[in-house]
Amino acid sequence: MKGKWLLFLVLIGLIVLSDAAEKKRRRKHKKVEKSEAEPSSGTGVSQDIIDMMTADEENVRGGYDQIDDPCAKKRCGAGKECKISDSGEAECRCVESCLPEVDDRRKVCTNHNETFNSDCELYRMRCLCTTGSQECLGPKYSHAHIEYYGECRDMPECSEQEMDDFPRRMRDWLFNIMRDLAARHELSPHYLKLEKEAEVEQSKRWANAAIWQFCDLDGHPHDRKVSRHELFPIKAPLMALEHCISPFLNKCDVDDDHFITLREWGKCLEIPEDELEDKCEDVRGVAFNEI
Predict the structure, then answer these.
(1) Domains contained in the chain, CATH given
(2) Which of 64, 135, 182, 245 could form a disulfide with 238 if both were Cys (CB 3.0 to 4.6 A apart)?
(3) Tens digit of pLDDT for each residue in 250-271?
(4) Exposure of 217 by Cβ count < 10 A (0-12 exposed, 13-18 middle, 19+ buried)?
């Protein structure tokens, strides 16, 4: 019985080998026909050799792409770019130059009411000033940030009555934005939980919305405080409609250290301190563990 099975397997193997040889012969025949039918590349080199050289070049490029780039895992802030030092270390340095901008919509107005041609040029200047470069135009630019996009223009003053009412309007606006993002399924499950909790418990409506926005604004590094330039996502879009937004956010920085803590954020929005829990670490901790 074993002999019959062995003979059967040998026959199968011969059939497979014969079929493979026939396919190889056909491919070779087609390749010869193709090289005879197709015109030359004009370089005196056959197309097969050109294809082979191209494939080798792509393989070499692929090999380079697979080399571990020290800058691949290096994060640099606005106005900085990663450069590799002589010792092979990844370093964050000020951007050497910014691309020229011809679109006026790319211009930005700073907190010093000065117009820069682009956000790149502003952040580059801030980097130059914080690193003590001779290219720095003055110490005030060490804390320069964007007020809004476009050229600087005259803004109406925010009256005392408008400023008094602004925290309430800001709280409502934050909750409405949070609810809208939840409806469009653009909140993470963790922020969505805060939103659902606020829907059920009216007492948490403003506090949860304030926590969500604070955590969302606190970018890299997550240091439990929001810098002036990290406020840009909520400040710049509102400047044209809400002229009180800038003085209001400036007022939130009580100690004028260019950072807003969660406590300062809650006080600015007139939310009782006992209602404002620090949930940023919990939200981010769970999110990072799931990745």
Answers:
(1) 75-149 (3.30.60.30), 160-290 (1.10.238.10)
(2) 245
(3) 899 988 888 999 899 999 999 9
(4) middle
